[in-house]
Amino acid sequence: MNLAEDAINRALESESWAREKLAAHAGRTVRLVVGPMSRTSAIDADGRLGPGDASPDLTLTISPLRLPALLARPERWSELVAAEGDAALAATLAELALTLPWFVEQTLARVLGPIAGQQIADAGRRLLALPEYVAQRFGDSLGRYVADEAQLVVGTEEARAFAAEVATMSARVDALAARIEALEK
Hints:
Elements: H1 3-12, H2 16-23, E1 29-34, E2 37-43, E3 49-51, E4 58-62, H3 67-72, H4 77-80, E5 82-85, H5 87-97, H6 100-112, H7 114-149, H8 156-184
Parallel strand pairs: 1-4
Antiparallel strand pairs: 1-2, 2-3, 4-5
């Protein structure tokens, strides 16, 4: 068993309702793909995860860059996670993902006390949401910069007109140089 499966099983240990939801899918396998890493897990009759060798019934794919956003806001599951395969199992996992913040808060409250546990869980959510917030702010700033600076950029027609004026001026300078040369002789 790997660390993720062990953590999930420990979180579900005292939550019989969640294990019952998973037990309804006993014998099914789920492959989780996060960037270049993947892990296949099987659901047993007790609603626990274990190693799975069979072809996956459901493949969940998420970008490693989007994983913090999912952990911070699991209600964005359908936006951030690509599910391919067993739709009923995918719906169950999406529903259980919504309870992830509650599991974390409950665990921290048991270890650190209710107030400190809640504060640390909130701080963790804010930290997990930080990369997406920074990317959004950077994108907004870049967009405003480009829009402001676009007024300084020369368009295609303006560039062609300028090039034509330069060519005309160059021809006039060459003609003037030829006249001066003729006068000198």
